[in-house]
Design brief:
about 10% strand
Length: about 240
């Protein structure tokens, strides 16, 4: 996946002291892909291929041209699906069913993550630009799906992707979230800006891809930067 980039800037330093109040946040909102599981699982390589196959079949074009179109849709609309819906009236359900039909065997169950989620007392919600089916598939493989009270997916968001602020407001209203008592965790830095603007505490799971780092230079919307989410959550949760 590619996206508009910003000039290189040093990432915010990882937090060395955890605020004592952070453990008791009333709501924890987690992105799914490359956040609840490490990017090294490389699931998105499968999704990316499926997206290009879908586009190639829909437009009866070759894979190289499909890839060019996919990247343009992503740049212009934030997600490929949003571009396909806006310009070509593509059925979102058919698209999501196809692109998320992947093998998640590379995702390993995380006992440390499951234990940390158990010990954090707040409510927990997955917020993804993907589908409920994909979230349940992946989080089920991780062994943590039952730790979450809800999945707020792209359908619930009215097919408006992050970082558009409108679905963040919808999530807050629908799930009765007080932003000042919520924490959002995400691997794409720019997706944290609307959460910060609402008053949430924000946690960036550091990524090395340009689309993940875009927006880091602004810095002010990132409260914590972490490299190992399960270990960090375990430290927040305490003994």
């Amino acid at each position: 996946m590619t996206a508009p980039t910003s000039p290189a800037a040093p990432a915010p330093a990882p937090a060395t002291k955890l605020p004592s109040a952070l453990r008791d946040r009333a709501v924890w909102i987690f992105d799914l892909d490359n956040t609840l599981y490490p990017a090294s699982c490389n699931l998105f390589a499968q999704v990316d291929l499926r997206i290009n196959e879908f586009i190639a079949a829909h437009f009866n074009i070759g894979m190289d041209e499909a890839r060019v179109r996919q990247k343009q849709f992503f740049r212009d609309y934030g997600t490929t699906l949003r571009g396909l819906m806006s310009e070509h009236d593509v059925d979102p359900v058919a698209y999501m069913d196809y692109v998320h039909d992947i093998d998640v065997a590379g995702v390993q169950p995380s006992a440390l993550l499951a234990d940390a989620l158990d010990r954090l007392p707040g409510r927990k919600i997955i917020y993804t630009n993907g589908s409920v089916r994909h979230a349940e598939n992946v989080a089920g493989r991780l062994g943590i799906i039952d730790r979450f009270e809800a999945v707020f997916d792209i359908t619930a968001a009215g097919y408006v992707p992050k970082p558009d602020p409108r679905p963040y407001a919808t999530l807050v209203e629908r799930h009765g979230v007080n932003p000042a008592d919520a924490c959002m965790v995400e691997d794409i830095a720019r997706n944290l800006a609307p959460a910060h603007a609402l008053g949430m505490t924000t946690v960036w799971v550091r990524g090395e891809q340009e689309y993940e780092k875009a927006g880091v230079g602004a810095g002010v919307h990132i409260d914590h930067t972490v490299d190992d989410l399960p270990s960090w959550l375990a430290a927040v949760a305490g003994p």
